[in-house]
Amino acid sequence: MSSVKQVQITFDCAEPERVARFWCEVLGYVVPPPPEGFDSWDEFDRAQPPERRGSAFAVTDPTGVGPRLFFQRVPEGKVAKNRVHLDVRVGTGLVGEERLAALEAECARLLPLGAKRLELLYDGHDSCIVMQDIEGNEFCLD
Fold this sequence. Notes:
Elements: E1 8-13, H1 16-27, H2 41-46, E2 56-59, E3 68-73, E4 86-88, H3 96-110, E5 116-122, E6 127-132, E7 138-141
Parallel strand pairs: 1-3, 4-7
Antiparallel strand pairs: 2-3, 5-6, 6-7
């Protein structure tokens, strides 16, 4: 039996590059180099048939540790809560007010990028902030 070596997380969205660049800012990810034979992703995109232009975009963890994120254009909009979401782990090892302060600082950083704050879950010890990305996909600051 073989074991999984890598995981890619795929987002359905309306504007793949825009959403991908948002997540680059959130996670510190980067846009990988374009395919061989192309000087830029724009050049690669222009070489695609018209119906495929702008239909996908990917970003990677520059350390090689995190999963690749792939963004694909779909015709339908988001209509329900995500069944799977990302937890952006900014408060690991922190508790109480110290944890809450770290989460609030990250939330304040992401709001100008287009993120939306939905709800603070805080019981006096543990906390997370439920948010949405620029196309309404839920994620948590944890």
